[in-house]
């Protein structure tokens, strides 16, 4: 038996590859399926099943492409209603893969079809639980995503999650290995550990959800502190449930190199968003006007989803030469299939064309410390609330990037302000959006709060983030 966790840090997502005696199963695959196909070929095994723990919201799964390419059957838990051919399993139904077996455990709460998969090894020992978004390490799946589809409140869904965990998961043996669908950084939970594998016994000890005195206390603790989910989640659920184009087809139509004139023409004709994926140091001094910067070397896909929102949005790409396919692939992971092409030869071709460029005004943290008048000047901190409460510049105003569409229209246009995040990545996203919407009256701080904290500027007392929030 072979069990491999295939973890993608950008999405904080874990897929799983299981093989035994010439057969294999894959759990919660990503959309770009080549790594799985390569493993199958290397091991000379046949993919028999593709197990989906639920209809994912934060990424587009690779179940349809894998099934198309291998003939493997797709398996969901009870109550699932996919818009394509799949096995909708019964609770406790067992599937054989070589000499191992996988039992479906229906665990509604995160969503109604949510299920865990219990792996029993060749010796008949219950070895591992692939817990999907039902059980994370240090946390459980948020119960507010499926309210509309289930016609239930988040409190009612949290109650179902309690029943699933306490009646079906808690009684399992302590030595069972827990393989969750997500880790720290995912928006599917609020308090996840940085580790990606643990034992159920340890989770029984350290996971707050397993240590509540009552069902009512569990419900209250699980829904406390939940932030609104990213707006692109609904589009991803629909694609996972109803279907999508094969990813090779998406790549084929998206990988079109465009001249500056063609690029500019398509942007105007289709109302396309210009997405510049270069590093902030390259973007800030020169970029195509109206571009939005989301650097591919950061948490690219989740921020693209959070900022762009509409998976039908036409997109044009500016990328470092040679990285265009990577950018399109990572956009496809979160459902953005309408890339119209990319700027051939990168941004240098735009510069060479003599077309108009824009820039972001920036200063160092030391310059900021010497010039800012705290209490008078406006300082906008776009970090998460928990980061802000942990420590911030005295008098700064917290406006998390996640909610920029809610607060951008309330910013003054006739008063200068300073802008920063933790290290510069998020504030450059905000800066590019601000300038695209006509704001020119601000200055970005290079290095963000990490650099500011090294100056003598007045700051609030430090409080550990784990004490101020579970977000």
From TrEMBL:
Keywords: Hydrolase, Metal-binding. The keyword Metal-binding applies. Residues 378-461 form the Rhodanese domain. Its EC number is 3.1.2.6. GO terms for molecular function: hydroxyacylglutathione hydrolase activity; metal ion binding; sulfur dioxygenase activity. InterPro entries: Metallo-B-lactamas, Mito_Persulfide_Diox, POD-like_MBL-fold, Rhodanese-like_dom, Rhodanese-like_dom_sf, RibonucZ/Hydroxyglut_hydro. One of its GO terms (biological process) is hydrogen sulfide metabolic process. The keyword Metal-binding applies. This is Beta-lactamase. The lineage of its organism: Bacteria, Pseudomonadati, Bacteroidota, Bacteroidia, Bacteroidales. The gene is gloB.
């Amino acid at each position: 038996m072979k069990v491999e966790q295939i973890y993608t840090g950008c999405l904080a997502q874990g897929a799983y590859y299981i093989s035994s005696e010439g057969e294999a199963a894959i759990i919660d695959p990503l959309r770009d399926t080549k790594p799985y196909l390569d493993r199958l070929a290397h091991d000379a095994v046949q993919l028999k099943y593709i197990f989906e723990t639920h209809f994912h919201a934060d990424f587009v799964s690779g179940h349809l492409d894998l099934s198309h390419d291998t003939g493997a059957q797709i398996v969901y838990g009870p109550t699932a209603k996919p818009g394509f051919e799949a096995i909708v399993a019964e609770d406790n139904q067992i599937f054989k893969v070589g000499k191992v077996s996988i039992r479906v455990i229906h665990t509604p709460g995160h969503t109604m079809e949510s299920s865990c998969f219990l792996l029993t090894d060749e010796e008949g020992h219950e070895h591992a639980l692939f817990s999907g978004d039902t059980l994370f390490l240090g946390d459980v799946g948020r119960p507010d995503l499926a309210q509309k589809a289930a016609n239930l409140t988040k409190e009612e869904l949290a109650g179902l999650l309690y029943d699933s965990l306490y009646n079906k998961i808690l009684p399992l043996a302590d030595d069972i290995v827990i393989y969750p669908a997500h880790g720290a950084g995912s928006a599917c939970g609020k308090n996840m550990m940085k580790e990606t594998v643990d034992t159920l016994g340890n989770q029984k000890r350290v996971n707050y959800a397993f240590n509540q005195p009552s069902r009512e206390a569990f419900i209250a603790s699980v829904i406390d502190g939940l932030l609104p989910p990213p707006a692109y989640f609904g589009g991803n659920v629909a694609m996972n449930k109803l279907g999508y184009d094969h990813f090779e087809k998406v790549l084929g139509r998206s990988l079109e190199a465009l001249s500056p004139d063609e690029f500019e023409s398509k942007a105007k004709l289709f109302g396309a968003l210009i997405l510049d994926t270069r590093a902030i140091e390259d973007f800030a001094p020169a970029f195509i006007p109206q571009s939005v910067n989301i650097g591919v070397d950061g948490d690219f896909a989740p921020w693209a989803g959070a900022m762009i929102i509409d998976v039908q949005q036409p997109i044009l790409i500016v990328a470092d030469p040679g990285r265009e396919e990577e950018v399109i692939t990572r956009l496809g992971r979160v459902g953005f299939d309408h890339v119209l092409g990319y700027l051939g030869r990168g941004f240098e071709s735009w510069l060479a064309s003599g077309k108009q460029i824009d820039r972001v005004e920036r200063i160092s943290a030391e310059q900021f410390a010497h010039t800012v008048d705290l209490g008078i000047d406006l300082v906008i901190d776009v970090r998460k609330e928990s980061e802000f409460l942990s420590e911030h510049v005295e008098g700064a105003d917290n406006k998390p990037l996640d909610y920029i569409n809610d607060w951008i229209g309330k910013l003054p246009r006739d008063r200068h302000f300073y802008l920063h995040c933790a290290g510069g990545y998020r504030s450059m996203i905000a800066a590019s959006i601000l300038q695209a919407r006509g704001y020119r009256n601000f200055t970005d701080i290079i290095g963000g709060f990490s650099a500011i904290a090294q100056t003598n500027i007045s700051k609030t007392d430090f409080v550990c983030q784990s004490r101020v929030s579970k977000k």
